[in-house]
Amino acid sequence: MMQISLQLLLKEIFEGCNVHMTASFQDSLARLDETNIDLIVLDLGIPGSAGVDMIKQLRERQPEVRILVFSARDESMNAPIYLRAGANGFLHKMSSQDEIRTALKTVINDKKYVSSQLQAQMLEALTSNKAIDANSYDGLSPREKEVLHKMLDGDTIKEISESLRMKQSTVSTYKERIMQKMEATNIVDLVRKTLWYID
Predict the structure, then answer these.
(1) Sites of the modification 4-aspartylphosphate (predicted)?
(2) Which of 63, 160, 184, 188 has a CB 3.0–4.6 Å from the CB of 125, allowing a cystine?
(3) The domain spanning residue 170 has which CATH number?
(4) Closest C-alpha to 95, from 111, 77, 118
């Protein structure tokens, strides 16, 4: 139902456009090999999903294509990672139709798009007076680093719980502890500080 609604909306906004729907990420790559595409709306839940590496694979085939990531995952955690990887925008699946319209029009015009709420969080993180202390990352335990990197891969608390075989409540506790040790004001700030260190 979501795909059909999005397809109709694309045709309404971009009159006369051709919309190609694919059943898996591999199908998407194959389509890019044979067709010039202006805009990709990338669902992170697509079968065969390869996480943030999908952006790299798409750009290897068509460097100029615009990519709008469409996901039900935590926007504040995932958007900065995917934008940094080369996506043009990030949109949550629960967004209103008006916001979806705005995102599509913004991205097709070669501009970046994130929600106004996330923009505020990113601005807060960028203007934070707190210096980035490399020792804060070094102070994380091996298990905390493991959880942190799972978070940076875009995994949900449930997914981290399953892959690391720990309770969801334990993962949440680790997340809070990591935020405190990294002195992060919010999730966006945590991503910024971690990426600064591991670069």
Answers:
(1) 43
(2) 188
(3) 1.10.10.10
(4) 118
| Phi, then psi, of 88 in degrees rounded to 5 | -90, -20
Alpha carbon distance 160, 94 (integer Å): 23
Domain boundary among 114, 145, 167: 114
**How many structural domains are present in the chain?**
2
Q: Find the angle CA(7)-CA(8)-CA(13) to the nearest 5 degrees.
A: 100
Any domain includes 120: no
Q: What are phi and psi of 92, to 5 degrees?
A: -80, 145
User: Looking at this protein, which amino acid is placed at residue 142?
Assistant: P
pLDDT 10s digits, 61-112: 999 999 999 988 878 878 888 988 899 999 988 888 899 999 999 999 999 9
89-92 vs 66-71, strand pairing mode: parallel
